[in-house]
Design brief:
0% of the residues lie in helices and 61% in strands. Strands 1, 4, 7, 8 and 11 form a 5-stranded antiparallel β-sheet that branches. A hairpin with a 4-residue loop joins strand 5 and strand 6.
Protein backbone atom coordinates (compact mmCIF):
# COMPACT_ATOMS: atom_id res chain seq x y z
CA UNK A 1 0.00 0.00 0.00
CA UNK A 2 1.25 3.46 -0.94
CA UNK A 3 0.02 6.65 0.69
CA UNK A 4 0.47 10.08 -0.83
CA UNK A 5 -0.68 13.20 0.92
CA UNK A 6 -0.27 16.85 0.13
CA UNK A 7 -1.25 20.39 0.90
CA UNK A 8 -1.18 23.44 -1.38
CA UNK A 9 0.90 25.41 1.13
CA UNK A 10 2.91 28.47 0.11
CA UNK A 11 2.73 32.06 1.27
CA UNK A 12 -0.52 33.04 -0.43
CA UNK A 13 -3.58 31.46 -2.06
CA UNK A 14 -3.52 30.62 -5.78
CA UNK A 15 -5.91 32.51 -8.06
CA UNK A 16 -7.29 30.31 -10.86
CA UNK A 17 -9.11 31.86 -13.80
CA UNK A 18 -12.17 30.25 -15.36
CA UNK A 19 -11.27 26.84 -16.80
CA UNK A 20 -7.63 27.10 -15.70
CA UNK A 21 -5.72 24.43 -13.79
CA UNK A 22 -2.61 24.19 -11.65
CA UNK A 23 -0.38 21.20 -10.89
CA UNK A 24 -0.11 20.83 -7.11
CA UNK A 25 2.00 17.66 -6.80
CA UNK A 26 4.02 15.30 -8.99
CA UNK A 27 5.80 12.19 -7.76
CA UNK A 28 7.57 9.22 -9.35
CA UNK A 29 6.31 5.67 -8.74
CA UNK A 30 7.88 2.43 -9.95
CA UNK A 31 5.39 -0.22 -11.09
CA UNK A 32 6.90 -3.74 -11.31
CA UNK A 33 6.28 -5.84 -14.42
CA UNK A 34 2.88 -7.49 -14.49
CA UNK A 35 1.48 -5.19 -11.76
CA UNK A 36 -1.21 -2.50 -11.76
CA UNK A 37 -1.23 0.79 -9.88
CA UNK A 38 -4.71 1.08 -8.37
CA UNK A 39 -6.20 4.13 -6.65
CA UNK A 40 -7.95 2.54 -3.67
CA UNK A 41 -9.16 5.63 -1.82
CA UNK A 42 -9.08 9.41 -2.03
CA UNK A 43 -9.87 11.96 0.64
CA UNK A 44 -9.64 15.61 -0.38
CA UNK A 45 -10.79 19.04 0.73
CA UNK A 46 -10.45 22.01 -1.60
CA UNK A 47 -11.43 25.57 -0.76
CA UNK A 48 -14.25 25.85 -3.31
CA UNK A 49 -16.90 23.50 -4.74
CA UNK A 50 -16.07 24.67 -8.27
CA UNK A 51 -12.66 22.97 -8.11
CA UNK A 52 -12.08 19.63 -9.83
CA UNK A 53 -9.40 17.30 -8.41
CA UNK A 54 -7.50 15.30 -11.05
CA UNK A 55 -5.01 12.42 -10.73
CA UNK A 56 -3.03 11.30 -13.79
CA UNK A 57 -0.52 8.49 -14.30
CA UNK A 58 1.83 9.77 -16.98
CA UNK A 59 2.73 8.86 -19.69
CA UNK A 60 -0.20 6.41 -19.69
CA UNK A 61 -3.85 7.36 -20.08
CA UNK A 62 -4.93 6.49 -16.52
CA UNK A 63 -6.91 9.38 -15.06
CA UNK A 64 -9.30 9.89 -12.14
CA UNK A 65 -11.34 13.07 -11.71
CA UNK A 66 -13.42 14.12 -8.70
CA UNK A 67 -15.75 17.13 -8.65
CA UNK A 68 -17.39 19.11 -5.90
CA UNK A 69 -14.44 20.46 -3.92
CA UNK A 70 -14.42 17.69 -1.29
CA UNK A 71 -14.84 13.96 -1.02
CA UNK A 72 -14.07 10.70 0.74
CA UNK A 73 -14.08 8.24 -2.15
CA UNK A 74 -13.14 4.60 -2.83
CA UNK A 75 -12.79 4.50 -6.63
CA UNK A 76 -10.71 1.29 -6.95
CA UNK A 77 -9.51 2.78 -10.28
CA UNK A 78 -6.60 1.28 -12.26
CA UNK A 79 -4.30 4.20 -13.07
CA UNK A 80 -1.59 2.14 -14.78
CA UNK A 81 -1.35 -1.47 -15.96
CA UNK A 82 2.21 -2.63 -16.59
CA UNK A 83 1.96 -5.21 -19.35
CA UNK A 84 5.62 -4.79 -20.37
CA UNK A 85 8.36 -7.26 -19.54
CA UNK A 86 10.14 -4.74 -17.28
CA UNK A 87 9.39 -2.42 -14.39
CA UNK A 88 8.09 0.98 -15.46
CA UNK A 89 8.62 4.35 -13.79
CA UNK A 90 5.58 6.63 -14.06
CA UNK A 91 4.83 10.17 -12.97
CA UNK A 92 1.77 10.57 -10.77
CA UNK A 93 0.50 14.10 -11.34
CA UNK A 94 -2.13 15.79 -9.18
CA UNK A 95 -3.82 18.96 -10.39
CA UNK A 96 -6.77 21.21 -9.57
CA UNK A 97 -8.99 22.84 -12.23
CA UNK A 98 -11.46 25.67 -11.81
CA UNK A 99 -14.73 24.62 -13.47
CA UNK A 100 -16.46 27.95 -12.72
CA UNK A 101 -17.07 30.74 -15.24
CA UNK A 102 -15.12 33.24 -13.16
CA UNK A 103 -11.86 33.27 -11.16
CA UNK A 104 -11.70 31.38 -7.86
CA UNK A 105 -9.03 31.15 -5.16
CA UNK A 106 -7.40 27.88 -4.13
CA UNK A 107 -6.60 28.23 -0.43
CA UNK A 108 -3.20 27.23 1.00
CA UNK A 109 -4.87 24.72 3.37
CA UNK A 110 -6.50 22.68 0.59
CA UNK A 111 -5.26 19.10 1.04
CA UNK A 112 -5.55 15.45 -0.08
CA UNK A 113 -4.72 11.87 0.86
CA UNK A 114 -4.45 9.08 -1.72
CA UNK A 115 -4.11 5.38 -0.93
CA UNK A 116 -2.87 3.22 -3.77
CA UNK A 117 -1.79 -0.38 -4.24
CA UNK A 118 0.51 -2.16 -6.68
CA UNK A 119 -1.37 -5.41 -7.31
Amino acid sequence: MLQVNGIVGGRSPISLGAGKSVDVQTIVIDVPKGKKLVLKSLNFLLSNDAFVFKIEALPSTGTFTARGGAGDLTPNKVLFNNTTGDGVRIFLNISVRNSARNARTLDRTSSWLLKMARI
